Amino acid sequence: MLGLNSKLRELEKLGREIRVGLIGCGQMGRGMISQIESMKGMRVVATADLHTTFIQQAYIKAGVNEQSIVITNEIEEAEKAIEQGKVIGTVYSELVTSLPSVDVIVDATGVPNIGAEIAWKAILNKKHIVMLNVEADVTVGPLLKKMADASGVVYTGSAGDEPGAVMELYDFADAIGFEIIALGKGKNNPLDHTANPASAEAEAKAKGASPKMIASFQDGTKTMVEMNAVANATGFLPDVAGMHGPTGTVQDLPGLFQLKEDGGILNKKGIVDYVNGVAPGVFAIISTDKPEVHHEMNYLKMGDGPNYILYRPYHLTSLETPLSVARAYFHQEATIAPWAGLQAETVAVAKVDLEPGSRLDGIGGFTVYGKLLSQSESSSANALPIGLVDANVVVTRPVKKGEIITFDDIEQEKESMIWKLRSLQAQSIEKPAVKTKPVLV
Description:
Elements: H1 4-13, E1 18-23, H2 27-37, E2 42-48, H3 52-61, E3 69-71, H4 75-83, E4 87-90, H5 93-98, E5 104-107, H6 112-124, E6 128-131, H7 134-151, E7 155-157, H8 162-175, E8 179-187, H9 201-207, H10 211-218, H11 221-234, E9 237-238, H12 253-256, E10 271-276, E11 282-287, H13 291-299, E12 308-312, H14 321-331, E13 344-350, E14 368-374, H15 375-381, E15 393-395, E16 410-412, H16 417-428
Parallel strand pairs: 1-2, 1-5, 2-4, 3-4, 5-6, 6-7, 8-10, 9-10
Antiparallel strand pairs: 8-11, 11-12, 13-14, 15-16
Helix pairs in contact: 2-3, 6-7, 6-16, 7-11, 7-16, 8-11, 9-10
Pfam family, one: NAD_binding_3
InterPro entries: Asp/hSer_DH_NAD-bd, DRL_cat, NAD(P)-bd_dom_sf, SAF
Organism: Ectobacillus funiculus
């Protein structure tokens, strides 16, 4: 089988290309446009963002001639421009998801409700959907995957995002028969549950990023959500609520991620976690019951055992997203998807004391942060998933700082798209009995 690079070159030789539609032209989207302009056989032909100047700047910085950028909200004009070899920008995401000439949609909005709606519409239009929106995926991904399967298209997370990078290690280790003890990622800043857009403003400005996005990394929500996606893909669960989050070097991890009776921190095997000190890397802790394999791992300088680490020291976020686009297009395969169903839940925890009438402001805001629980723990607590938190959610009774917010604590003024999909998911999808990826034939 030819590699993706060879397939892309062949496609270009035939005078064709994978036509990508992008929603969201922030930092991730801009980087992806530039990366794809350097590739063979693929192009971002349509981009939607509320600020069309961002779209124009992104294409120009990627090397696209300004005269080849058409800003339009009309589908006929957009289709004509694409057929002429031009690219289009629009303020309407619906235009991009409905364009007949677009093959694959990428959601790079980072907003759970918007991402859920984009994926829903992409699948209805029978287009592959790549999610750079883990928050939406962990909330309604099982339903969206079921829809995509029924429609004959691919629903997938992105290569380069940490869950996708972890999944590559998992697939490798699982395929060659290792026992997988733990899957995880590094966290590159100290955990601060009180972080908010105001406290994160200086760092955000220095990095050219959104203060809410930076706050969501600092308060731990992003880490919880990312490992939630891995849990839903593999069936691995947090060992304790919120995960352990130890500090250590790469060399420390095989010893740390052992059972407590063997000198480690774990109550059980098959867990997801994060580590302070190994960012921006991702890892898998593996073992074996075969003496000859232990001998070979020792010979290969993988350590003394009984546990070993597979470590990838980088993830290139949206710059790797084109690999997921190509895999979906050529092979109809997902990089990462919730094959195991809803196994874990990132629940909303109060950042401050909340009084009746308090309005929740979402991920990376001033009111809540996320904490990863197993789905059974979340269900028993009637906990509110972080992906359902938006400005339509109002607190109806006092919630103390550090307490999990439950459905009993809130009311919804207006039902958003992601709430509708979550309700449909609860009605239509039962927890699967088998927690493994399907065998590809």
